[in-house]
Amino acid sequence: MQNKKMLLAATLASMMALAACGGNNAGTEPVNEAPAQDDASPSTDNAAAPSEGGVDTTEEVALKMVFVGPKPVDYDAVFAEVNKKLKEKINATLEGEFLDWSDWAQKYPMMLAANEDFDLIYAANWAGYNDQALKGGFLELTEDMLQKYAPKAWESTPSVNWDQAKVQGKLYMVPQNNGESVEKIILYREDLRKKYNLPAIDSPEAFANYLLAVAQNEKGVTPFTPETGDWKYHNLDRILLKQQNEWNMFDLDLPFAFKLKDEKGQVFNVYETQEFKDLVVYYKDLADNNAWSKNVLNSKNDHQQDFRQGKTASITHNTGTTGSLMEQMRREGSPYEVAVADINVGKAKSVAISTQNGTAIHATSKHPERALMLIDLMQYDKEIHDLIMYGVQGVHYEPVGDDLFKSTDKSANYTGFSNWSFNSPLNRTNEAFPKEVSDMVNGFESGVYHYALETFVFDNSKVKSEIAAVGNVMLRYGIPLEYGLVKDIDQGIAELNKQLKAAGVDKIQAELQAQIDAFLANQ
Q: Who has greater pLDDT, 226 or 197?
């Protein structure tokens, strides 16, 4: 997951949560002072004094926010500047805690379950937003609270974005307010493709051909490295199952999908399909021919770092992340020629909904009002937004006009974590962002496929124990199949589905289908 710029993503919102790589143009005026007034306009008084709107900021508070991703190298320098501004505006400071990509998926729910001491946390549909909201980990945000303490966010965010972020009619996050495309693509070494005179990588077969050629000829280079800490369905599945077959999955940690063009929204078990079996055959051939590490299930490698250093010949991620990595490598004078590939040209592409990125307030926060004021500033105060998103001006980036920026040799020292929760119309675009990636994104967005279940959210409260059991089965029996490590494919799939039945997969599917039917009946 990395800096991303894209449209808004589909049914994954059922989770809550999870991130990877056009928004509303309203509300681009920055907040100059955070204390809100009754008319939702910012105060011009000193923030350290009680505001006219009744927000008392005389007491300095220390806020803590949990981000996913690694702690930036220059965290101290950037957050020192952020805190200077926050103290001026709302008499608060912010400390960040970072959950590395290799283990965030385990630590994130544990922190919420243990009621650890923090005020804000990155939230997203792919990171279990819906589930954690229902478990009581997040504070409910009311309209009155938002109008008083986060007036710019309330005014500037379209109502559809707020509606998408509701769980059982209640709101638990301030969602992003900026467009985002989350379709996965392939980033690969174009110099190696040319070296071995390989055809364009424009299909699953062409990609496999590339991986096998690298495996046979490039000693010391791993053909493909997956993202560590990924979900039960990894990024290649999202390309070769979701995109290839024009499906969508409600939750990348559950075995269910539906066909985008099925107006009835009939869900099915992916593991019972011929498409899954065909894909496992594809993966097994790649695994048998050393397309990825034999230690793939235990690897903690940073796939992006490995690609940047020439240790791997391809990775997968969203367009924003791959484009940013390409820009960085070109700026640094990398010896490797890199390119991106869409191996499902012409297939329906869906987009992210607003809960692809957002910020939630911990249910036990002692300072929820000040936390909301902080979110408002991070999203809509130009000075603070630039700091939290891009670092220190003149060190980590150079502004180019109001909406572009230029990278510096220190840009890499402030990147890689989930500051995307503050995406807003104030976001800048890297002026050196690769044109070929922008063209690809524009192509995706021009042909976005919208479907009836785009904003459906699954309430899993009645099947929580079954979901936990099914997840364990997927880890134990499904993932080895995903990486071609099971010798007898037919036997492996049969055992997987047997264990899923015992774990209660049918009960989950029945509950999911009932909710979908009710949702569609009300459309």
A: 197
Q: Where among 391, 426, 461 does a domain terminate?
A: 426
Which pLDDT does position 349 carry in this prediction? 79
What mean pLDDT do residues 430-455 have?
85
Of 78, 114, 130, 122, the C-alpha closest to 97 is 122
294: Cβ–Cβ under 8 A, 6 or more apart, which residues? none
Residue 123 inside a domain? The answer is yes
Domain encompassing residue 393: 61-180+353-426
What pLDDT, on the 0 to 100 scale, is given for residue 124? 93
How many structural domains does the chain have? Answer: 2
With 50 as the cut, is the pLDDT of residue 27 above it? no
144 and 213 together in one domain: no
Q: Where are the alpha helices (DSSP H) in 298-381?
A: 303-308, 319-331, 368-380
Q: Check residue 7 and give its pLDDT.
A: 31
Q: Mean pLDDT for the chain?
A: 87
Regarding whether 97 and 65 lie in a shared domain, the answer is yes
**Which of 371, 392, 426 is the last residue before a domain boundary?**
426
Q: Are residues 476 and 330 in the same domain?
A: yes
- 188 and 302 housed in the same domain: yes
Q: Considering the domain boundaries, does residue 444 fall inside one?
A: no
Backbone angles phi, psi at 460, to 5 degrees: -95, 15
Cα–Cα distance, 271 to 249 (Å, whole number): 12
User: 354-375 as b/e, with b when 16 or more CB fall inside 10 Å?
Assistant: bbbbbbbbbbebebbbbbbbbb
For residue 229, pLDDT over 70 is answered with no
Same domain, 501 and 417: no
Residues 31-48: tens digit of each pLDDT: 223 333 333 333 333 344
Mean pLDDT along residues 288-298: 91
From the CA atom positions of the chain, what is the Rg in Å?
Answer: 23
Same domain, 292 and 392: no
d(C-alpha 52, C-alpha 370), whole Å: 16
Residues 139, 383 contacting (CB under 8 angstroms): no
Dmax over Cα atoms in the chain, in whole Å?
71
pLDDT digits (tens, 9 = 90+) for 77-111: 999 999 999 999 999 999 999 999 888 988 999 99
Q: What is the C-alpha to C-alpha distance for residues 34 and 15, in angstroms, rounded to an integer? A: 32
CATH number, domain of 281, equals 3.40.190.10
- Considering the chain, what percentage of its residues have pLDDT values greater than 90? 69
The secondary structure of residue 167, as a DSSP letter, is: E
> Same domain, yes or no, for 189 and 248?
yes
Residues 341 and 225 grouped into a single domain: yes
Phi, psi of 307 (to 5 degrees): -70, -45
Average confidence (pLDDT) over 294-318:
91
